[in-house]
């Protein structure tokens, strides 16, 4: 596997010395994938992204993004960012916003026009490109926000709640855009509450709770562990089969047998037993945990394990070869975002 694009540890953040937003967090984001960061409100998702982008300062962060220490200036030129609740001046048109952000990102003017046109097309805003943002719907502004995040042709793009306010058709288009970005070899880092949306696009996820990662990995693997087979049947299940299936650890509810199995082979004797009793099998299907189930389960487990331990205010010295994000700049009054 290629090197991860982000590999950080010891990420701690206290706002005003009190609110402990991130606690000794470690995170690895593989290259060229769609990565989803999930967590309840206030879990620390936006704070983490802002630290990676040097918008918020944190002490003692170890690790790298795109092979360089966090805070490396040149690396920031290779990332794109759509902040949560992004606002652009309402007197600008969509095209103006792209021209403006192209300038900020040092995109040469001879490329900026072509790039803007391509991005306006990509996000479905070509027809409204020359009208002012104040006439745009929330979803249209969000589309422009995604386009500006791509203006510098980034290797990694951070999208904080990208489909906020976007209609269902628009969400599908956004998913297609993200998949296209991944297929072009970019890494897409999404913060979102919309678990159904994330489930449809993410290759990898991490679940954050109270400033710590409580679950992470490939989405398919995380949910495969809970794979089950379900048999729907018609008729009454004889008592001896009820006993046998219960002893086998199957769940029996209302003409449905749910079995914890990873392949269909194990279901065959159950089907045979049902048919031997003249029961009609009406449906056989494979199910697995949804991302929502995984999320709720992870957060519940974290709650049962109690609050995370307090991390001492003083961070350990950085490891050789891993420069911390600007330590001298730890904010005293909150962040600078
Ligand atoms: N500028 C700030 N000053 C003080 N506290 C802050 C600041 N920004 C965030 N916090 C606090 O840090 C914690 C983490 O906030 P953060 O916005 O990172 O969470 P989040 O997971 O992105 O939440 P949401 O899903 O609601 O957007 C919260 O307790 C929040 O109140």
Provide a brief overview of the structure.
The protein has 337 residues and is of the alpha/beta class. The protein has 11 helices and 14 strands.
Could you describe the 3D structure shown?
With 337 residues, the chain is of the alpha/beta class. It has a domain at 227-287: Alpha-Beta Plaits (2-Layer Sandwich). It is built from 11 helices and 14 strands. The protein has a 6-stranded mixed sheet with strand order 6-7-8-3-9-10, sandwiched between helices. Strands 2-1-4-5 form a 4-stranded antiparallel sheet, covered by helices on one side. Helix 6 (168-183) links the parallel strand 7 (156-160) and strand 8 (187-191). Helix 3 packs across helix 4 (109-122) and helix 3 (94-104) runs parallel beside helix 5 (138-149). The longest helix has 16 residues, at 168-183. Mean pLDDT is 86; it is low at 318-337. The site of adenosine-5'-triphosphate has 15 residues, from strand 2 and helix 1.
Q: Helical content, roughly?
A: 25-40%
pLDDT averaged residue by residue? 86
**Number of H/I helices:** 11
Strand order of the largest sheet: 6-7-8-3-9-10
User: Which ligands does the model contain, each kind named once?
Assistant: adenosine-5'-triphosphate
Oligomer category: single chain
CATH class of the domain at 227-287: Alpha Beta
Q: Which spans of ≥5 residues are poorly predicted at pLDDT below 50?
A: 318-337
Give me the CATH fold name of the domain at 227-287.
Answer: Alpha-Beta Plaits
Family: Belongs to the ABC transporter superfamily.
Region (Disordered): 300-337
Protein name: ABC transporter ATP-binding protein
Biased composition (Pro residues): 306-319
